[in-house]
Amino acid sequence: MVSGTFHSSRRGVEVGWTVSYPPGRHPGDGTPLCLVLHGYAADHTTAFTQLALQDPQRAAALGHPPKPIVLAAANGGNGYWHPRSNGDDPQGMLVHEFLPLLAALGLPTGQVVVLGWSMGGYGALLLAETYPGLIARVAAESPAIWPSDAASRNANPDAFDSPADWAAHDVVGHLPALGTTPVRIDCGLSDPFLPASRELAVLLGPGRVVLGPGGHDPAFWQSRAPAQLDFLTA
Questions:
Q1: Average pLDDT over every residue of 159-173
Q2: What domains appear along the chain, each with residue ranges and CATH number?
Q3: E strand map for 129-203
């Protein structure tokens, strides 16, 4: 695992990042790259310290022997992974700053896959809709998607700047922008965001959304991550 920081002009802050290489792999060997988008009140370390996405033993124990993939996470703050009126642009940071940094490290960035949970699950879908040519596959765990701007403001007043901002970044309304990009969504049956995942199941068609016991918490995300990484490396 390698970590560092860089000054992001897109976010206007110093951004921390972490890259995890699978056993026996190293920069320049062509191992596929996965961008990891964290949830609200988390950062670039959470995927590795809390969810242990890099742990091959956990994946194997859950019936998904891991395939080689590089996991790369950058700190996107709490701005819901889209450009904000205050000048914070975490999505732009990923595409225009973090990916070039990863390319300079010798990683393949021409086309990547993306995984995210909660706010990051929303952000992963949004990134794939915004840059369908860049994102080869997208996996979202418990994507935090509200049915309206009013609902989002009631739950998290800082998630969007205005009704227009919510509408411009409505991942359900802009779902056709995904085109033929393969998608997998996992959501627990006790998750407060379950209605959005049920709607996506109808819109995306059979096999794209996997529902099962669980809530909106790290235990569920840990349990589903191996299957999602398996999907991303198919």
A1: 97
A2: 2-232 (3.40.50.1820)
A3: 135-141, 183-188
